[in-house]
Design goal:
The complex is a heterodimer of chains A (91) and B (527). Chain A is of the alpha/beta class. Helices cover 27% and strands 22% of the residues of chain A. Chain A has a domain at 27-88. In chain B, strands 5-4-3-7-8 form a five-stranded mixed β-sheet. A four-stranded mixed β-sheet of chain B has the order 16-15-17-24. In chain B, strands 18-23-19-22 form a four-stranded mixed β-sheet. Chain B has three domains: 7-155, Glutaredoxin (3-Layer(aba) Sandwich), CATH 3.40.30; 180-351, no CATH class; 376-508, no CATH class. In chain B, strand 7 (97-101) and strand 8 form a beta hairpin. Chain B is α+β, with helices and mostly antiparallel strands. Classes of the chains: A alpha/beta (91), B alpha+beta (527). The interface between A and B is medium-sized, with 19 and 42 residues. Strand 1 of chain A pairs antiparallel with strand 12 (175-177) of chain B.
Chain lengths: 91, 527
């Protein structure tokens, strides 16, 4: 029996991981996806970073809604301004 | 005049006969089971004996040519078209079909069935062409005309196979060969193509039949489906509709629902949520009855093919094209039975109000789908005692207040399904849909101070207004009344259900009104 493929036939592009840096330096972005209590979690992350890596700068970002992918502008902005991004994902 | 397709077939003796070959040709398409073909065979043989040395005269047989040879002791070449490829390519719908073509392969004459007049005209033409005398045929022993039989190439199941296999096939999806000893149902489970229930294997024949339900180009891309943003063609929709168990006439509804699903406003990306929402389809307009949808008893339950399979098809599209698979990108903590599919028609004939699609700007005679992103499982609200619209609307409002969380107000879209007995109570007092909406907002309005979490319960959700007010905490703000829904317009109302039973139901939605907006799409109907 032959059947027709019901799925998306595109082959995903394989991407390699970015090179791992020796350590955390420069600017760390904290991305709040705008979900309940995500800000609480990121605040704790910031406190820990301040203790462990006092020379690292912190920047805050926020998605308009958790229900859609981050806007291109926001992603580009983080790319320009940050060396690392930590996202407070989901629940 | 039509240029006929070239072909090459073998006769009973194994000789290859190719068309065109620089000679005029008479092609007689027959099938052994057809009595009119039998009636025609002696005439064909006589014509062959008269002109067969100067023109090609070939019988193109769809069935057992040896039987024809044995029965009529014919000398005319009998070409084997049991594969039916030539009959299909020549669009033969009736046998016998007689086609006379000139030397360059252009059709000059064609008729179907048995017609003495056509045969006589053809014989006159052949005598003029060849200078040979007409054969002696006892025409008085033959009827003036006799209807033919259906060509085997257009028989159900065969036509779809031939269409799928033809060079002009509209199918482009990758074909997957399932080994002979492999169970196709198990194969499709193993490949992760199903929702956990068996699916109908989407063979090319079945997909061709499904595509007969629309006039649209199978390769038309109707949109991209989140969360993977895969392009969705009409063909891919048809494949998944076959798997869901749809009939071809359901396909336009599935297409319209898919268009809504792919819209920016609907935001199918949100269906990955841990909250576990599902697309819920409401169908309005004449197509409900044409498809035999169930609007009455057990409308939100099982038992009707159209209701069940249209909703399921949309979910399979989300899974197979959007990539929405639980445990992968779909993260619902609990999910709901509606994850298998949710599609319901409005019982417009039982409603005193404008149906949903008319409220949303369509004509009553339009057939329309409206797609919601909702919790999926309906929450029933019982009220067997109210005798006034006001009391009943109050009950419904209180019942709806528990959606998301009882203390979370200013939430987004919900779908309220009013049962026939309840709508009678509301209409007896002359209440409109807007009256009902306003009363729901009124009875659910609470001071913000009552909505704040306490030691005994939580509940401050993510609603921006509520959060802002809670942080402000001026007395004026804390005393401000906040209704359950951000706007009365967030309360979408349809009438459906069986004749008896004082229950209505609400499909709760996202707390945040901005996440997903209900989207309506007109259904292209094939009449």
């Amino acid at each position: 029996m032959r059947i027709l493929d019901p799925t998306d036939e595109r082959v995903a592009v394989r991407r390699s991981l970015a090179a791992r840096p020796e350590g955390v330096m420069g600017t760390v972005g904290l991305l709040d996806i705008n979900k309940a209590r995500g800000d609480v979690m990121l605040k704790q992350v910031q406190l820990r970073l301040n203790d462990l890596l006092p020379d690292v700068a912190i920047k805050h970002y926020r998605k308009l809604t958790p229900a859609r992918p981050a806007a291109d502008e926001l992603r580009q902005q983080m790319l320009r301004e940050c060396d690392f991004v930590i996202e407070g994902l989901a629940d | 005049m039509t240029s006929l397709p070239a072909f090459s077939l073998y006769d009973l003796e194994g000789n290859q006969c190719s068309f065109p070959n620089n000679k005029a040709s008479l092609l007689c398409f027959v099938r052994e089971e057809c009595e009119t073909c039998h009636l025609s065979m002696p005439v064909i043989e006589a014509v062959y004996r008269a002109y067969g040395d100067t023109i090609n005269l070939w019988v193109v047989g769809q069935e057992d040519n040896q039987k024809l040879r044995d029965r009529y002791q014919t000398t005319v070449p009998l070409l084997d078209d049991t594969a039916l490829k030539v009959s299909f390519a020549y669009q033969v719908e009736i046998v016998p079909t007689i086609i006379f073509a000139n030397a360059s392969g252009t059709e000059v004459v064609r008729w179907e069935a048995f017609h003495q007049g056509d045969w006589k005209d053809l014989i006159t033409r052949l005598s003029q062409l060849t200078g040979l005398p007409a054969p002696a045929i006892d025409w008085e022993q033959l009827p003036a005309l006799r209807p033919g039989c259906g060509s085997k190439s257009v028989a159900p199941g065969i036509l779809e196979r031939l269409t799928a296999e033809a060079e002009s096939s509209p199918l482009r999806a990758r074909q997957i060969e399932i080994a002979e000893r492999e169970d196709p149902f198990e194969f499709m489970f193993d490949q992760g193509m199903t929702d956990g229930l068996p699916v109908i294997p989407p063979t090319p024949e079945r997909v061709i039949r499904m595509l007969s339900g629309t006039r649209r180009d199978p390769q038309e891309v109707v949109g991209t489906c989140a969360p993977n943003y895969a392009p969705v063609t009409i063909e891919k929709i048809a494949i998944n509709a076959v798997m869901a168990g749809c009939k071809p006439e359901y396909l336009p509804v599935v297409i319209a629902a898919t268009e809504a699903l792919c819209s920016h406003e609907f935001n199918a990306h949100a269906l990955v949520s841990t909250y576990g929402p599902s697309p819920v389809i409401v169908v309005n307009g004449p197509i409900r009855k044409r498809l035999g949808m169930n609007m009455g008893i057990n409308v939100l339950g099982h038992g009707n093919r159209a209701n069940a399979t249209i909703g399921r098809a949309l979910k399979l599209i989300l899974r197979n094209l959007g990539g929405l698979r639980p445990g992968e990108i779909e993260r619902a903590a609990l999910g709901s039975p509606a994850k298998y599919g949710a599609c319901y028609p409005e019982f417009e004939e039982r409603s005193p109000w404008e149906p949903l699609h008319v409220e949303r700007g369509f004509d009553r005679n339009d057939s329309v789908v409206t797609l919601f992103s909702l919790e999926g499982s309906p929450h029933q609200i019982a009220d067997q005692t109210s005798r006034s619209a006001r009391a009943l609307a109050g009950s419904l409002g209180l019942g709806m207040e528990c959606g998301w969380h009882p203390k979370t107000h200013s939430v987004g879209d919900v779908l309220l399904v009013i049962s026939p007995e309840h709508v009678d109570t509301l209409w007896r007092d002359g209440w409109s849909k807007d009256d009902l909406r306003m009363r729901i907002q009124e009875i659910t309005s609470r001071p913000v101070r009552e909505l704040l979490p306490t030691e005994d319960y939580g509940g401050l959700g993510a609603m921006p207004e509520q959060v802002a007010l809670a942080h402000g905490r001026t007395q004026e703000q804390l005393n401000r009344l906040m209704p359950k829904f951000k706007s009365p317009k967030n309360i979408h109302i349809i009438v459906a259900g069986g004749p008896a039973g004082k229950w209505s139901a609400v499909f709760n939605g996202f707390g945040d009104a901005a996440v997903s907006v209900p989207v309506s799409h007109k259904i292209e109907e094939v009449v």
